[in-house]
Structure formats: C-alpha cells, structure tokens
Amino acid sequence: MCGAPEQTAQLPPGTDLSKETVLIGRVVNGSEPVGGAFVRLLDGTGEFTAEVVSSATGDFRFFAGPGNWTVRALSRSGNGETSVTAEGPGLHRAEVAVG
User: Fold this and answer.
1) DSSP states of 21-60
2) CA dist., res. 15 & res. 88, Å (int)
C-alpha cells in the first residue's frame, strides 16, 4: 500500500502557500481524467525525487522546492510529461497529457 496522502485538489489544512512550494495538477487523456497513473517528480537534472498515484479524478500533488521540475505520468492509457518552473513558494499547476 502506498504511503502517499490521498491526492485531491484540496490542500491539507495548515498549508502555508507563502512558505511552501506545491505542485498540483491532473493527468488527462484528451478531456478525460486518468486515475491510477504513477506520477513522478524529477528535478532539474532529471533525477527521480518522488512518486504518487493519481486519484480517480486524475489529481496529483507534490510538496517541492523552488526550481525547474519535470512531472511524468505513466498509465495504462499511455505516458506523458510536462515541465513546471516554480520560482518560489505558492501553488504551481501542471497538466500531464497521456495517450
């Protein structure tokens, strides 16, 4: 069983976006959400940093640091990736298209 928190669009209580960098998004195939995808966070050098499983609605969330990130999704529908630049604390959104 995965120890990652449930992946929802809502942030956990007590999250302070003035201090924390949060990468949040969805995995989609066309306009349909992709649940159960393995979503990986890679740092600016391509090194694996973290992995979560997308929720039934395709949502994922990472608490990260400022920098350049790659979010990669692996699913039965296909694979995809996108780049995210988090220049500082706050909420940074990404959508990963697979297919």
Assistant:
1) EEEEEEEEETTEE-TT-EEEEE-TTS-EEEEEE--TT-EE
2) 15
Q: Which CATH class is domain 21-87?
A: mainly beta
- Pairing mode of beta strands 90-97, 21-29: parallel
CB atoms < 10 A from the CB of 91, how many? 14
For the stretch 37-70, pLDDT in tens is 999 999 999 999 999 999 999 999 999 999 999 9
Burial class (CB in 10 A: 0-12, 13-18, 19+), 11: middle
Say which DSSP state 79 is in: E
Question: Would you kindly state where each structural domain of the chain is located, as residue ranges?
Answer: 21-87
Q: How many CB atoms lie within 10 A of CB 23?
A: 20
According to DSSP, the residues that pair with 71 across neighbouring strands are 41, 82
